[in-house]
Amino acid sequence: MSFSENFLHFIWQFRLYKTLDLFCIAGEPLRILNPGMYNKNAGPDFNYAKLSIGEITWVGDIEIHIKSSDWFLHGHQDDPAYDAVILHVVYQYDRPIYRKDGSQIPVLILEHLLPEHLLVHYHQLMNVVSRFPCEKQIREVEPLIVNGFLSRMMVERLEQKSALVLDKLIRLRGDWECTFYHFMAKSFGFKVNEIPFELLADALPLQILRKHLDNALQVEALIFGQAGFLSGSFKDEYPRKLKKEYLFLQKKYALKPIGLGAWRFLRMRPQNFPTLRLAQFCGLMVISDRLFSRVLEIRELPDLVKHLEKLPVNPYWLNHYHFQKETEKVKLQLGKRSVYHLIINVISLFLFSYGKYADQPQLVSRAIKFLEQIPAENNVIIGWYRDSGLIVESAFFSQALLQLNKYYCAQKKCLNCGIGIKILNK
């Protein structure tokens, strides 16, 4: 039966072996008073452990291996960091280990101390062919356990993404408005066009755009021009006006547009075309001089949704999905799902990040509240967990499941998952 050292770490950390009448390999009685602190860095696996061997109490490090000979396989015999090891815990014993002073390190063998059900459940999780390891067992775990761990996943997700926000903030010299502008632009790409929208934000600094927010035509000229859509010749009056404005502003600010080839149109509905998304992004810029400051002022989700649903989009796009390409009437405003996408991926994230940064816990609470009020997203991954019996009603839990799946389920890190641990212990 095969398993990883991480499994033995898990066994040791949570004392899931038979703890009565323990003996070292040499026959001395052994009592584990404290298993120690799990060390995820270099050095022995557990530090500051406390145990008694015979009549002597020891405090020091614990090293854990599948086989005792792994000590040499890992090169510990040449590493002084392992001189303080007081117990070598192994699944199988195949050779003794000695310290540099010649004394033998005491050994505890786990091979006959592990409960059979634990091994069975572990192998079921690790070897099952399914969409995620506990697909067939998760419905048996109490909702309190599942929801508790998913809440932890949501906070972990926000903290991970918040680190990206703070990294961008540093590169933008502490300007929260510019940082928000960059993240909002990227999110307007709605996955398929995230990269060109991000390139656009880099190519069109907010400091320049901000000078023209009182003139919608100039805002549209700057955004479409820097996006690369005004490089051709046009018959329609609207794009001709945009190009005229853009050529003047391009020369004034020495602007260089991004390549038109970066944008993706294939296999998309017209309402998702980047041209329409750019037009909507123009509307967002026009109505909000200091967009992030405005977002901080909005306390209720319906007010925020209303703010994003009523963007002023140039009427040219009512019957165009591209410059000089007419179509049937197009819905100009962002749909509810698109609005929720922006709130989930940008606004709630920034409320959380800024709340932590500025020590304003009410903003952190507001971020969580918005996620709890928004309906859960529908995608393939969320569908897997729903099929397994989970009730996923809000974006708080759908986002938490995405975090769980990416960083735990897909990597089979069941030993680090509160749900997995519960299943292993059943």
Unreliably modeled segments: none
| Total count of helical runs of at least 4 residues | 17
Q: H/E element string? A: HEEEEEHEEHHHHHHHHHHEEHHHHH
The count of domains is: 3
Work out the helicity level: 40-55%
End-to-end separation: 20 Å
Structure report:
The chain is α+β, with helices and mostly antiparallel strands and 426 residues long. It has 3 domains: 110 residues, no CATH class; 108 residues, no CATH class; 176 residues, no CATH class. It is 48% helix and 11% strand. It has 17 helices and 9 strands. The strands form 2 sheets. Strands 1, 2, 3, 4, 5, 6 and 7 form a 7-stranded mixed sheet that branches. A two-stranded antiparallel sheet has the order 8-9. Helix 5 packs antiparallel against helix 13 and helix 8 crosses helix 9. The protein is elongated and about 95 Å long. The chain starts with a helix and ends with a helix. The mean pLDDT is 93.
